[in-house]
């Protein structure tokens, strides 16, 4: 029985590795790479003008902003850079750190320097909002404004965290993410995507272009699990700090979001940052940038203008959007 179990796990590991490599051959990187402190990051860049950096959420990659239409809308007037966060898409996530929102923000700040990105408008969706906020709080010289989409901002109980945390555990988690986790994730992928877009349908372009094997590759599974484990601690340390933001902040949320409750998070953050602008999209779910791409792009444009004319970063002096 022990030998048979070991053989089954080995076969699963071989199959999942082969499937991951096949998916990467069929969906090669569409952008360029920059190496920061030994970490290779993949990014997509288009356009010229005021820089706008787009940070995606969990499961998806930088191309999420391309499929939503936001990327190309912005590229007409801005230098737009969509980055695969560490461990997602074609970006590395080396062993060692947990790659918290703060650690990801520190890495991206160095990437900004290498890429010549100065005072960017930073846009984050879902988990990416935590990295965007950390960039603004820890490296305010690098950020001129924030646009936050469907984010998680204050400490609440998350029943989903224990369900997805196991692959983040050393050794045991490594076995899981090469054997069982990809198979379970594949079985759950369709209902997961439906829940993300609900109550709206999964858009045809996303359904056609999104490589469904990418989220269940062993490496990305580890990134997703680590992000789930570090999400609540990230906001616990951030809840008081956001009150000190001194830059334009626009907060988007769908009123029918089934992943993150908009009243608990988006409305709360707006009340916590009095100078922020809250935009609730009726009938939209978690993927609010697909439901209202023009409105999101317009808000980013307005934030860029406000950041250009805003006052210098002097303590106690706020720049109003």
UniProtKB/TrEMBL annotation:
TM segment ranges: none
Q: Which UniProt keywords apply?
A: Hydrolase
The highest taxon in the source lineage is Bacteria
Matching Gene3D superfamilies: alpha/beta hydrolase (3.40.50.1820)
Q: Which residues are the signal sequence here?
A: none
Q: Where is the AB hydrolase-1 domain?
A: 51-290
Query: From the UniProt record, which GO molecular function terms apply?
Result: hydrolase activity
Q: Which PANTHER family match?
A: HYDROLASE, PUTATIVE (AFU_ORTHOLOGUE AFUA_2G14860)-RELATED (PTHR43798:SF33), MONOACYLGLYCEROL LIPASE (PTHR43798)
Q: What is this protein called?
A: Alpha/beta hydrolase
Q: Which organism is it from?
A: Skermanella cutis
């Amino acid at each position: 029985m022990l030998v048979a179990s070991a053989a089954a796990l080995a076969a699963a590991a071989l199959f999942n590795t082969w499937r991951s490599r096949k998916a990467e051959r069929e969906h090669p990187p569409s952008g360029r790479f920059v190496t920061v402190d030994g970490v290779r990051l993949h990014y997509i860049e288009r356009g010229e003008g005021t820089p706008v950096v787009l940070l995606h959420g969990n499961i998806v990659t930088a191309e999420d902003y391309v499929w939503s239409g936001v990327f190309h809308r912005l590229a007409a007037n801005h230098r737009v850079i969509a980055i695969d966060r560490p461990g997602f898409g074609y970006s590395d996530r080396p062993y060692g750190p947990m790659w918290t929102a703060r650690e990801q923000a520190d890495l991206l700040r160095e990437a900004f320097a290498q890429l010549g990105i100065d005072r960017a408008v930073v846009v984050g969706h879902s988990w990416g909002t935590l990295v965007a906020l950390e960039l603004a709080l820890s490296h305010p010289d690098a950020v001129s404004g924030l646009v936050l989409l469907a984010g998680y901002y204050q400490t609440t109980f998350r029943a989903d965290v224990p369900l997805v945390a196991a692959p983040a555990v050393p050794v045991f988690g490594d076995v899981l993410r090469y054997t069982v986790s990809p198979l379970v994730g594949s079985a759950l992928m369709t209902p997961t995507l439906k829940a993300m877009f609900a109550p709206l349908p999964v858009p045809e372009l996303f359904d056609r272009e999104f490589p469904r094997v990418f989220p269940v590759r062993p490496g990305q599974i580890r990134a997703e699990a680590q992000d789930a484990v570090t999400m609540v601690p990230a906001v616990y340390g951030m809840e008081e700090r956001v009150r000190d933001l001194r830059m334009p902040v626009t907060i988007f949320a769908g009123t029918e979001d089934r992943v993150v409750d908009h009243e608990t998070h988006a409305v709360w953050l707006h009340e916590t940052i009095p100078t922020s602008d809250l935009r609730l999209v009726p009938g939209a779910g978690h993927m609010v940038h697909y439901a209202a791409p023009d409105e999101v792009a317009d808000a980013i444009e307005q934030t860029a203008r406000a950041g250009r004319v805003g006052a210098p970063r002097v303590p106690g002096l706020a720049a109003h959007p």
